[in-house]
Design brief:
158 residues; 37% strand; 18% helix; alpha+beta; 4-stranded antiparallel β-sheet; 4-stranded mixed β-sheet
Length: 158
């Protein structure tokens, strides 16, 4: 049953017979943002939720998997490119949402972005071409905003 175990904390699921608390931990997802031919790579989702909306490659981290490795794996599964993580872009969480999203800036080390089994199409976007109204999730919007500000806005090094 759901009950308050400690004043000031949210209600928890508690076994009525033995009193054991069932801790509902957040789910961890990880993804990458990177460019191809100088443009940001986004994927149009081929699955629910947010079918048809734009996202960066990412998904749930497996238990025992290194978070960055999960981001790299998900990028391969969804966009068919091998990437190397270059920096932690951000950690995104929202009230009443069970998923915490870790996003890395990355660079392609092998392959060409291609739509895979959960992807309808690959899109390449300059900073002024990003489909802000068609991004799938708050974490998509926030991570893309951060990537544009911190990575795409950097002056090129000679």
């Amino acid at each position: 049953a759901s009950r308050v175990v400690k004043p000031g904390e949210p209600a928890r699921l508690v076994c009525e017979r033995c009193g054991r608390i069932f801790w509902q931990d957040p789910k961890l997802a990880a993804g990458t943002l990177f460019t191809y031919e100088g443009k940001l790579v986004l994927l149009r989702r081929g699955i629910e939720p947010a079918y048809g909306k734009w996202v960066f490659p990412g998904g749930f981290v497996d238990r025992g998997e290194v978070v960055a490795d999960g981001a790299v794996r998900e990028t391969w599964e969804e966009a068919r490119v091998r990437v190397a993580v270059t920096d932690l872009l951000g950690l995104y969480s929202y009230p009443e949402r069970p998923v915490v999203v870790v996003v890395y800036a990355a660079r392609i080390v092998e392959g060409v972005p291609t739509a895979a089994d959960e992807t309808l199409e690959v899109g390449l976007f300059g900073p002024d071409e990003i489909p802000w109204d068609d991004l799938a999730f708050p974490s998509t919007r926030d991570a893309v905003r951060d990537y544009v500000a911190r990575v795409l806005s950097r002056p090129s090094t000679p």
